[in-house]
UniProtKB/TrEMBL annotation:
Annotated source species: Cajanus cajan (Pigeon pea)
InterPro entries per record: AminoTfrase-like_pln_mobile, MAIN-like
Segments forming domain Aminotransferase-like plant mobile: 101-405
Entry's Gene Ontology BP terms: meristem maintenance
Pfam family, one: PMD
Protein known as: Aminotransferase-like plant mobile domain-containing protein
Length: 456
């Protein structure tokens, strides 16, 4: 490759190429050199202890029989909070629209509490805690920010959340109650206006019970700062917080599979995993529903596809379905189809080969690497990399050998931020040398992989 072209490709998110038949496709960049002699990559784990559970010499399925003890922290049934949600929405819907959470809150009106434990566990069997990806036979797959946007309506852009984001706090009762008791304590009387404290309390409940699904089944105070930030109409990028929360819960769930007693009390946004699995298994397992939800979100539709029958015998069906993904297919990229039911701002712009110029910022968020701070408490803050280069084909792009954001000797992806100086960490990792550009052009989806990727 010529030096001039190499410099351009090192700064571009999309790298076009054409085949002999004239069809134009694209790799997901940037191009940072595809060394043909050195196949090792620090992006991959060197410790066998992080290999997916499916590689265990023996798996005792009897440990996964009592799913009531394994899964406790799923969203409560909608009837418990629906009347409170309706009350708050009647006065705060315009605020939710301004904060870009209106569509996401609508999901709480549907059956997020329904899940298929055998489907979830079968997928977690394939989770690698080091790469933070499901290692299917066709290589890495994982929910991306595009998947989250389609399911929840959350855009991949917005402010980073940090704990000192509030300039002034609004007083609220400092109680730690179960969900029902919290609702009873904070819901306003019928016929009265929704107060600031009631709205913040509702957002705390929603974040705890319906979004992040805390293991205590209570509303902890550490969601207060995020709830008040949303009340204050700060444009927090919830989609990235949700993604890293899913990473954390999958890491913990995968690690718990290796315990002699089996997993217990799994928590976090596993409802998101269920909906994503419904999407990729919809055709393969013929998941259907006759109910059409009155909501223009894929997430609402996907809630109706969750299988209702539970049986330990279903492990074989789901494991076989995963193992049948020997080649990457459109089933693993379910949200780039032209018939998408997602949010209106994404519906006509969900194919990267036909994006409009006014959606460049959104697609830059989907496709470019980033650093995400997890945790809503200072002591829980950790750094996670968002590296869509691992999952290029899920966007309809071709796959090159991915490279890490920084060499492993430079920074640990799980480094704790003890001092709270987030900007200093970002400046260190996302230095100007990694600045990328997204230049749109027209091309068609394709699932090709490079030779260097195959050797790697």
């Amino acid at each position: 490759m010529e030096e001039a072209s190499l410099k351009i490709f090192q700064s571009q998110v999309l790298l076009p190429f054409s085949l002999e038949n004239g069809n134009v496709h694209a790799f997901l960049g940037p191009f940072v050199g595809q060394n043909k002699k050195k196949f090792a990559n620090t992006l991959l784990p060197e410790d066998d202890s992080t290999l997916p559970f499916i590689h265990s010499a023996e798996i005792d399925l009897s440990l996964f029989g009592d799913t009531t003890k394994i899964f406790r922290a799923f969203p409560p049934i909608k009837d418990r909070h629906l009347s409170w949600l309706t009350r708050i929405e009647s006065e705060m819907s315009s605020s939710w629209v301004e904060t870009s959470i209106f569509d996401f809150i609508q999901l709480a009106k549907f059956d997020l509490h329904l899940f298929d434990p055998q489907m979830l566990l079968s997928a977690i069997f394939f989770w690698n805690r080091e790469t933070r990806a499901f290692e299917f036979p066709c290589d890495f797959v994982c929910p991306t920010l595009l998947d989250i946007a389609t399911i929840t309506g959350l855009a991949p852009i917005g402010e980073r959340f940090h704990h000192d984001i509030l300039e002034e706090e609004v007083p609220i009762k400092e109680d730690k109650k179960t969900y029902l008791a919290f609702i009873t304590a904070h819901v306003g009387k019928s016929g009265t206006s929704v107060s600031t404290s009631e709205h913040i309390a509702f957002l705390m409940y929603w974040l705890s019970a319906c979004v992040f699904c805390t293991p205590s089944l209570q509303v902890p105070k550490y969601y207060y700062a995020l709830a008040q930030a949303l009340h204050s109409k700060k444009q927090i990028c919830l989609s990235k917080l949700l993604l890293v929360s899913l990473y954390t819960s999958l890491d913990e769930a995968s690690e718990s599979l290796f315990r002699e007693t089996g997993p217990r009390n799994l928590s976090g946004p596993l409802w998101l995993l269920q909906l994503w699995l419904n999407a990729i298994f919809e055709k393969k397992l013929s998941l259907t529903s006759s109910f059409t939800p009155p909501c223009a979100l894929e997430g609402a539709r996907l809630t109706t596809l969750t299988p209702r029958k539970r049986s330990i015998q279903h492990f074989a069906k789901y494991i076989d379905a995963i193992l049948s993904f020997t080649n990457f297919s459109e089933d693993l990229a379910p949200f780039i189809r032209t018939t998408l039911t997602g949010p209106s701002w994404l519906r006509q712009n969900n194919q990267v080969g036909h994006i409009s110029r006014d959606s460049l910022e959104m697609w830059f968020g989907f496709l470019s690497w980033d650093i995400i701070f997890s945790g809503v408490r200072q002591k829980d803050v950790r750094i996670y990399p968002y590296q869509p280069q691992l999952f290029a084909r899920q966007f309809g792009l071709c796959q090159m050998k991915p490279l890490p954001l920084r060499p492993i000797e430079s920074i640990d992806a799980d480094i704790c931020v003890d001092e709270g100086n987030y900007q200093e960490v970002l400046d260190f990792i996302l230095h100007p040398g990694t600045e990328l550009q997204l230049t749109p052009f027209t091309f068609s989806p394709f699932f090709l992989v490079s030779r260097c990727y195959l050797r790697w």
